[in-house]
Specification:
This protein has 351 residues and is of the alpha/beta class. It has a domain of 242 residues: Rossmann fold. Helices cover 44% and strands 17% of the residues. It is built from 13 helices and 12 strands. The strands form 3 sheets. The protein has a 7-stranded parallel sheet, sandwiched between helices. The chain has a 3-stranded mixed sheet with strand order 7-9-11. Helix 6 crosses helix 11. The longest helix has 21 residues. It starts with a strand and ends in a 5-residue tail after the last helix. The structure holds nicotinamide-adenine-dinucleotide (NAD) and 2'deoxy-thymidine-5'-diphospho-alpha-D-glucose.
């Protein structure tokens, strides 16, 4: 059995990865290390929690001794590092935790690998990162593996720092690392502070749909399962020491995204699209709001044969349907019941 340490496996993308990989890889033993912050919800991994090849460990990556303990107890050979503070708006209000988790947390994990992996054979440290490290594009051009770093928000700067440390551990110590930088993900189980789930839930309930600025900012959207399939592909076939950019060639302005959500929700509710669209409200812009992100995924496509399976239309439809059909999940997140469950079962730690 190969032991795979997944950090942040109770979050949005980490949980999608576990729901996909745990049943697909009975030959791998998955250890999910998660602090269960506000963004970590055990309900997200309920589908795999009883699997024989899955265990959960609550730990804080910022706690060096706790991270070392996990390595001593479980001896992972592969690390897939999702855990992070991930929301740009929160990083603007309170950047400290972003530096702690995203930079120091990643550093602690790298140090644990360096101490444990005397022989790099068969080992991989896969760092999950973002296209935001490259900064903002104008109307033209796309990010690729040669694009210089120019992060603009405290969140993206902390992710850029983590990318650099990961790369430096490969260059200096020969740690077998792989880095992927992905564009905006959407899909089931995304915490409803991010654009797409927030707009779906508000549109279902005739609440204002707050679009920052004029809604002209562009993001490059990818369905979360397509991201997870790309990660599995890079884990299996990607070259050690290399970076792969992942994106769906799916650029949309925020206004286009919100409009599409309104139309999908209107169809489900059996009302005219205009009845939902009238809730679109332009609000104050995000400070330092990056204008446009777009990925050129040619490398992962040509070298590893990955392409997305979902279009924006099919992915969005699936996502809207999921939020409609999973009101219990939505309610326990909104009421904070999931926090009470965590406190009862794991104690009061976490943020
Ligand atoms: P998320 O916020 O939904 O989940 C983060 C998870 O990390 C949570 O389960 C949380 O409890 C855990 N965590 C946070 N701090 C921790 C700590 N100190 N110790 C242990 N666990 C901790 O994030 P997400 O959207 O699933 O993103 C996962 C990764 O993918 C992040 O590294 C993010 O930068 C990257 N990424 C996200 C997107 C996106 O669109 N969401 C796109 C590209 C890359
Ligand atoms: O590009 C990858 C990144 O995508 C990830 O690294 C981040 O973890 C992830 O959160 C996401 O960052 P964004 O800032 O792009 O995502 P968010 O959903 O917060 O916002 C998407 C766009 O929508 C952005 O231009 C801001 C805008 N927006 C967002 C919210 C929450 C609004 O107009 N209104 C809103 O209420």
């Amino acid at each position: 059995m190969t032991t795979v340490l997944v950090t942040g496996g109770c979050g949005f993308i980490g949980s999608a990865f576990l729901r996909m990989a745990v049943p697909q890889h009975p030959d791998w033993r998955f250890v999910n290390l998660d602090l269960l912050t506000y963004a970590g919800n055990p309900a997200n991994v309920a589908a795999v929690a009883g699997a024989p090849n899955y265990v959960f460990v609550r730990a804080d990556l910022c706690d060096e001794a706790a991270v070392r303990d996990v390595f001593e107890t479980h001896a992972p050979e592969i690390v897939v590092h999702f855990a992070a503070e991930s929301h740009v708006d929160r990083s603007i209000v309170g950047p400290r935790r972003f530096l702690e988790t995203n930079v120091t947390g990643t550093f602690n994990l790298l140090e644990a690998c360096r101490a444990a992996w005397r022989d790099p054979a068969g080992k991989v440290f896969h760092h999950i990162s973002t296209d935001e490290v490259f900064g903002a594009l104008g109307k033209e051009g796309r990010f690729d593996e040669r694009t210089p770093y120019r992060p603009n928000s405290p969140y993206s700067a902390s992710k850029a720092a983590s990318d650099h440390i990961v790369r430096a551990y490969h260059h200096t110590y020969g740690l077998p690392v792989k880095i992927t930088n992905c564009s905006n993900n959407y899909g089931p189980y995304q915490f409803p502070e991010k654009l797409i789930p927030l707009m779906i839930l508000n549109a279902l309930e005739d609440k204002p749909l707050p679009v920052y600025g004029r809604g002209e900012n562009v993001r490059d959207w990818l369905y979360v399962d397509d991201h997870c399939r790309a990660i599995l592909r890079v884990l299996r076939d990607g070259k050690v020491g290399e970076t792969y950019l992942i994106g769906g060639r799916c650029e949309k302005t925020n206004l286009e995204v919100v409009g599409a959500i309104c139309d999908a929700v209107a169809e489900i509710r059996g009302v005219e699209p205009a009845a939902v669209r009238r809730w679109i409200t332009f609000v104050q812009d995000r400070p330092g709001h990056d204008l446009r992100y777009a990925i050129d995924p040619s490398r992962i496509t040509t070298e590893l044969g990955w392409t997305p399976e979902e279009t924006f239309e099919t992915g969005l439809r699936r996502t809207v349907r999921w939020y409609v059909e999973n009101r219990a999940w939505v309610e326990q997140v909104r009421t904070g019941e999931y926090r009470r469950w965590i406190e009862t079962n794991y104690g009061g730690r976490g943020a």
